[in-house]
Fold these 2 entries.
Entry 1:
Amino acid sequence: MRYLARRLGLFLVTLWAALTVNFIIPRVMPGNEAQAVLATFRGTVNPAALHALEIQFGTNVHQGVIASYFEYLGNCLTGHFGVTAQNVPVINEIASKLPWTLGLVGVTTVLAFVIGTLAGAVSAWRRGGRFDGLVPPSLFILSTVPVFFVGLLLIYVFAVKLNWLPLQGNYDIGATPSFSASFIGDVLKHAILPGVSLVVVTAGLWVYSMRNNMVTTISEDYVKMARAKGLPERQVMSGYAGRNAVLPNLTGFAMQIGYVLGGSIAIEYLFSYPGLGYLFYTSTTDHDLPLMQGLFLFYTLAVLVCVLIADLFTAVLDPRMREA
Amino acid sequence: MTEPLLDVRDLSVDYLTEAGDVHVLSGVSFAVAEREFVGIVGESGCGKSTLLFAVAQLLSPPGEIVSGEVVFRGGDMVGLRGGELRHMRWRDYSMVMQSAMNALNPMNSIGAQFADAMEAHGERSRERIRARSREVLELVGIDAVHLGSYPHQLSGGMRQRAMIAMALLFTPQLVIMDEPTSALDVVAQQSLMTKIRELQRRLGFAVLFVTHDMSVVSRYSDRVIVMYAGQIAEAAATETIFERPLHPYTRGLMNAFPSVRGPRREMAGIPGAPPDLAHPPGGCRFHPRCPEVMDICPTREPALYERDGARVRCLLYEERAAVGARAEAPRSGAAQADAAQADAAQADVTVDAAVDAAQADAAQEARP
Amino acid sequence: MAVVDTALTETPAQGATDVSQGRFLRAVLRNRKAVLGALILLLMAFVAAFPGVVATRSPQAAIYGQNSLPSSAHPLGTTSLGQDVFSQLVWGTRLTLIVTLIVSAVATAMSMIVGVTAAYLGGVTDRVLTVITDVFLILPVLPLLILLAAYLPPGATSLIIVLCITSWAFQARQLRSQGLTVRSRDFLLAARARGERSLYIILVEIVPTMTSLLVASFLSLAVYVVGFAATLQFLGLGNSSELMWGTMLYNAQQASALEAGNPWWALAPGAAVALLGTGFALLNYAFDEIGNPALRPVRRRRRRGRDRAAA
């Protein structure tokens, strides 16, 4: 389908753009940041890896920019994204922290999407009612509040004052990871506050846009027609209005995942939750540029994958797309 | 005299906006007999589409029926609870909208949309649903293979016919149509109208047909209702209205549509525009554009007067008795004076115009 | 609105361009959200302009007792270095507001230039610009911000720069849509017939018709800029000696203010950020409603105790 092909094209172009951003930034930014950082690597990192980093960052190279660029791209395509200051391949570092972030952010995003979409649909359905008057504005306002502030509040109330929930980490210090019930319970306990912060803010994002989409859809003729046919209101809202409000906008919803991921970085920092976001934070304090750029790339890829999945869903489920 | 199938009595519809109430329909009364084809004509914004939706009980906020009755087969539909009304929908009366592209769910196949109407009314058997779907498609001349098609896969004319087929699923007694031909080219229009008329004669349903096109109305309807600014301006049998239009507005409409076969005449439109919502004219709403305006027109509101089998809202005919003056009488003078007209051509009303109207201070025109 | 609209769907141009001034003002005043939002922003502006009036103590002087709880002398307590939190909050308003306004203005202007140029010139230019816009829209903002900020010396100027780079694409799509609707109008043909250059046409003829959309874009952006700026600083990418709410948060977090029993040091600037964002958001929400009648609040009225059979 041409639609999917176009979206895939955008996917590839953006990926290429992110790779290029990583290449250009060190060369374009004023100052010698890259130089200074890589100088510290000289002792710890093996020469081959150092060379790869040098062509990526443009320090100390004796070859032209173009040549460096293609060598760099080649490295990326084979999965070599450089090494961290501790001489660990960036990709390994990311892989080790990935599961924690995936769990936290994955679950909360899905939850937030479901909650946000349902709340948006219900409030549009009962426009002017109490639900509509209360929920979307409050959730919307919550969504404009920076995520970490919600986190701060929750920490203060539940962790500090009430002491019900832990305020940092992903499991208790000293506990050994296993699949036992107690460990899993521990993990969940630690995930509640960060999770709730994320859900609250991101659900707010989706509520507002879903409500507006739904309001517009409800005013469409085919919804009126569905009512005219005597269909029960519930069916009209879900089958005629809901589907038509969500499906064409699925990609738009997916594009907001970038914002969600950003929020997760702040939350992981706040809660010292050892996932990719916390890794990102420590890489900035350590001035570990290769790791930072690797993480940036990874986050971009994550967003792209989500958007592509949304595109796939749209292409498959929307009959109009099957022709395009 | 037998009871009419549909009896609309003094129906008034308001649009409730933040800035105030906009009176889209004021005291509209008419009846439709069984098997009758009634055409409603008027300019954009006269309230004819709102009338249809109000009759079909499909008004959505901010529109609301504020007074009057819609008596269908003896029972008033206004105020019916959800369940009872749903039972009547589509079985007893159905609707055809202007654009099938907008009125059909783009995500569902035609067959699925036929099916859910039937399922909603208790039909469980798949075979019967398929059989009936085939039948109605056949009635309009569409091959049954298109049950699996999606709306965007059909041509404009086919879509409209599919929509009409859908309206006939339960062979209702009344089919309400909102300009179903305006989205089509002239040839398709012709064939669609002929098909509608043929089906009407065969299956015996009444039709309430809204259009801005007088020529369509002239060929197919039994009776014509002319609307202006939310009120009925004139109502009569089709031949009567075309041979002897009484209301100056109706005459203007006639002159605006050239006849291919008739004598060559100078074309004239109706100068001016429908009333500004912010400042509705006092007295007769048509007086600012009326070529036969008299001195009293800006100050007195005409009721519907009967004249030679027609009803006409014009002071030119005031000597005769006012028809159903109580029912048709405009609401209290003040309310009438600050009534405003909203552009309600489509279901999704642009409230901008309504806001314009309601923004003005209520025009309390001096009354004699 | 805001973030979602920048997806595949081309949003219709905001319809408020035809609304006259007086009517518009009245519509704004009638809208509760607009009034509330405006009040918040006015309050912030006042505090930013006259901090000395509101807070009498010096914000930076570390002379008051350390980590003290709120009292009549120090409404929000003091920091771990002995500075008055309330004063810091008040004096920090100015720079925070300035950064927000500059970024929003510049990014809106950049969005507009790209969007309108793409709309007006069309063809290849349009396609290239659209692809670039789409790319920047998908790139996750905070990671990019962090990356850019790491290369620049910490401070408000760097903050402004990186925020502009990541925000310009935000509204470019909407502005392009609006530009497309304006493109073929007669007064533009007249301008071209007069031989005016494209840049002139874009700036002088097209842009003024889009003022309402520009204002809406500005407000949308401001909501997110406030949050992103604070988040960046919170993560340590700001200059902690500059006085802004975000840097206060960073300092508070570094000193573990919440656990140390001095919560207001962290909560107050956070609340201020939230309040400022909310102010912009309310105005934006109200603006949406005014411009798009379908979204306006719906009044429900019960007539003579009748149930409404239709929805």
Note: The longest strand of chain B covers residues 20-32.
Entry 2:
Amino acid sequence: MGRTQIKENREMTTVVKLDGLIKKYDNKAVVDGLSLEIREGEIFGLLGPNGAGKSTTMNMVCSLLKPTAGTIEVFGYNNRKDINKIKPLIGYIPQDLAIYDNLKAWENVELFTSLYGIRGQALKDAIDESLDFVKLNDKRNAFAKTFSGGMKRRLNIACALGHHPKLLIFDEPTVGIDPQSRNFILESIKAANKKGATVIYTSHYMEEVEAICTRIAIMDNGKIIAIGTKEELKDMVRKDKNEDISLEEVFLTLTGKKLRDYTEG
Amino acid sequence: MSRIITLTKNYLKLIFRAKSVIIITIVGALVVIAALTNVFHTLLDQAETGEDFTIGYEMSEDSKYSYAEDYLKEGFEDEGLTVVKYDNADPEKLLRDGSIDVFIDFGGDDYSITGRSNAEIDARIVQYVLYNVDHVMNGDTGSTSVNTGSIEAAEQPDADTYYCIVQTVYFASLCSVFLCLIYITERRQNIGIRFRSSTASGVHTYLGKLIACVLTTWLSMILITGGLVLFLFDIKLNHPVLSVAIMMFTTLAFIAFGMLFFIIFRNTAASIGLLFVVIWFWGYVGGCFETYMLSSVSQTVKQMSPLYFVNRTLVELSVNGSSYYLMPCITVLTLMTVISIGLGMFITAKKKEV
């Protein structure tokens, strides 16, 4: 794909545009008429209780799921017609680790990068850069099965970076890891954003979202119930201007305190 | 194409890193071959001795021998021969497929004896018995016209040749087990999401798995196990290139067939279990345990098994240098391969949501 074409498509600086997006399973809408725009250079936080439809939305943006209705545009490309133009532009970091335990760190990155058609010296450079980025280059020859939880999470990220995506989608990347690894991952996300990548970040950890996201949307029951910067969201629920309020309080006020028992499928 | 090569390389790494599975498969095949060869040695040797053989005959209504039919049967049975009467039989077919060793066609005033080319002694015994009967009945045997002939029929293989060939084929057909190494890893480690979010298509991942598994089986079962078996048991193949080519084709067909199970069923254990049952059944009726020559399974049931065609072709090629089953075997394997790959790719593409 020509770089010029991408630039032309970025003129509106909208990276992701969702319009009336619906996803139904057995006639039950998991995502219900979602409309949203994410702009270039943002770290966009997507918050919501379990079963709110965050992962389903992200899966549709990544072309892993077919919407029941509505349109998705990524960098100006329609994700039904231009799927092969969209995929190289996205780096998806799934919530569950998706790495081969029986491959070495560099072999994992090599495999998943070469699936995008990258070869030769460019591939070698991509492996080095990706492993450097997550500080695993000194462990490149170790098998993934010997890694700690935090190292596996970092390798999971490296595997999505090799093809130099313009849009990074992190689906709860810090689940079950130690504070050092969490901090490292958050710093890495900010660094990737500084390098020019637009980031979509979903998490249950409010302090993480508060720390790195430039704009936040709160989803519930398949719909966006609030969107804005963290200060704009806080203003929505503040009773007076001087009230000190956390993002968690905003979240609980908007989505309620009732437990959300949720089963997949 | 480059994505298929990349994926094939990756799957080969994963399979070869599970060395224990490959070693167990190779050693297991050798042990089973040695055991079956040993156990069935006596049985197959007995079948070859000529001490007990089967005579088929047909008696025309106006034959001068018809009134002595019971006496003839008695005479043959006293010599330890099994006698089967046929009506409108095709002696050539019966002799070729080994149902009988000698066929006697009693005409009006004559009879003709046709035997398998490798059953000369049997034919001579029959001729001797008939001569005696004729002598008692007619006194002067010079008035009876006797025709003798022979049919090029299948040689019977010895136990070493038979089991070395069919068990190498059987274990090669079971090698779709290598696929479970790939599928279990991919499903447990959630790898599918990476493939689906990349620009690699379902066809790329399908072909990557198929090629890796086929290459591994060719190397481990056809070359290593097959080579060791030929060397250790001193088996001579009449047509080594053709025989190896058929084994390689069989591997491709069975792995493509095995992949269908893994694609259709999400549950890997269910896939493996069902696949084993199907291949075991085909092996059972196709002569992988009980030889197809001595098996009591009907011909119709035998022909339900692709392994019957493969075994019969390879054994006959090895023993006789040719086989009437060659073309049916290639046809069956081609159908199996084309249908399995076509269906496999279709289902893989359908399962990919977008």
Note: Strands of chain A lie at 14-25, 28-39, 43-47, 69-74, 77-78, 90-93, 167-171, 198-202, 215-220, 223-228.
